[in-house]
Design a protein that fits this description.
Blueprint (H helix, E strand, L loop, with lengths): L15 H22 L3 H10 L2 E3 L3 E3 L3 H14 L12
Helix pairs in contact: 1-3, 2-3
């Protein structure tokens, strides 16, 4: 009988910090879905179009509404604060 040799993979365990960051991202995604239920994603898209950012590599770029939502809320959620579902006022 021919047996296929397999190597066992060593599963690397996530650190506490990695788990906390991943949990914050998952909660941010859930908050975006809540935002969509309240029809506020379009507000984030408008906010994104009006707030361009400058990067070292690409110059001035326009983020998406989702990108801005994550940029603003990921740190809030990471620090156990409530996410902001409506974009900030200028």
């Amino acid at each position: 009988m021919n047996r296929i040799k397999t190597t066992q993979r060593r599963v690397k365990q996530r650190t506490t910090l990695q788990k906390k960051r991943r949990d914050a991202y998952v909660k941010c995604t859930q908050a975006w879905k809540d935002c969509a239920k309240e029809n506020k994603t379009e507000l984030w898209t408008i906010y994104a179009k009006n707030h361009r950012i400058t990067t070292n590599r690409k110059g001035t770029v326009t983020l998406t509404g989702w990108n801005w939502f994550v940029k603003i809320n990921i740190y809030r959620i990471y620090n156990n604060l409530e996410p902001i579902l409506t974009p900030p006022n200028d």
